[in-house]
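Lab notebook page, bench 4
Experiment: in silico fold of construct C2
Operator: M.H.
Input chain length: 383 residues
Purpose: comparison with the prior construct
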Amino acid sequence: MPFSHLTDNLDIQAKQGLYRSRRVIDSPQSVHLQLNGKAVINFCSNDYLGLANHPAIVQAFKNAADRYGVGSGSAHLICGHSTAHHALEDELAAFTGRERALLFSTGYMANIGVINALVGRGDSVFEDRLNHASLLDGGLSSGAKFKRYAHANNTHLDALLSQATGNKLIVTDGIFSMDGDCAPLPELVAVAKNQGAWLMVDDAHGLGVMGKQGGGLLDHYGLSQDDVPVLMGTLGKGFGTFGAFVAGSEVLIETLIQAARTYIYTTALPPAIAEATRASLQIIKTENWRREKLNTLAAHFRFSAEQLGLHLLPSSSPIQPILIGDSQHTVAISNALLAAGFLVSAIRPPTVPQGSARLRVTFSASHEEWHVDGLLAALEKLS
């Protein structure tokens, strides 16, 4: 029977605690969700600033849908590039301190498109071992020599770079999505400049969250376009909307328009999404209390979780993973938390290395301290 081996593979995944299932949400994205008909408190969303259902952003989307309709109709280079897209690109460039920005339909497509446009056969790409799958896939599909350096280990990276020929591209997450720690960007900048390499940073989990006005990890460290020539950011996390962008020099953006296949050969984001994101950007820049509250909640959780003896990974971001180790045990705890009314994702291989399954706890500016205390009480009963 064709594909019969697929059933066997699924059975093996289930026995190992690696089987993944979707949950059906019947409410707006927020701290309080209706999940399969049950009210739960959400601790696994990337909606860090609580903007996914913000009234002003929702209204901006509705107004733009009345003006532009629902679909963009085509790729940006055909007839899908609206004034809304163009305005958002200009505003994102100014926000990140770059010459220009370019919208992509998803972060995955942005990372694949950028890496493939910048390096190929005869070149080399160097990636942190814990990079997001989209970055790793971009490096592997580029045809360039692909090297992974030990996590956040600049000495190892420097040694690999010194042996490379051709164009050299260093690629790293800014905040690592499953660990919550930050890449050592100032040191990476120094290594890149010393070795004549380009540096690309995926700041998906830093934009909106880090920096005085939410400019991300690069803003936090005061790094310029010259320091980090290629910046990628997503709009579905801190921004609360959807899509992604790449920001950098005029030459970089024009190169991507001509050569990034995931930009050229796909339909543009709906203009209404772009207008909603413009509204989100204004909130990000002006409502600093959201970032301050995130820091307070994360610090409160860490202090209390450590008192309970929970094994936290080192993180100062809204991502606070609790290391469990065994995949099946992690799933069991996640299910028990769900029964208690708390939605916390069980993250297992291959998303994380073998033996490092974890509960990925994430915070939103919409959380209150009593939400956090409730989760801690539930964790204490299960520990």
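Observations: The chain is about 45% helix and 15% strand. The CA atoms of residues 348 and 354 lie 8 Å apart.
Next step: discuss at group meeting.
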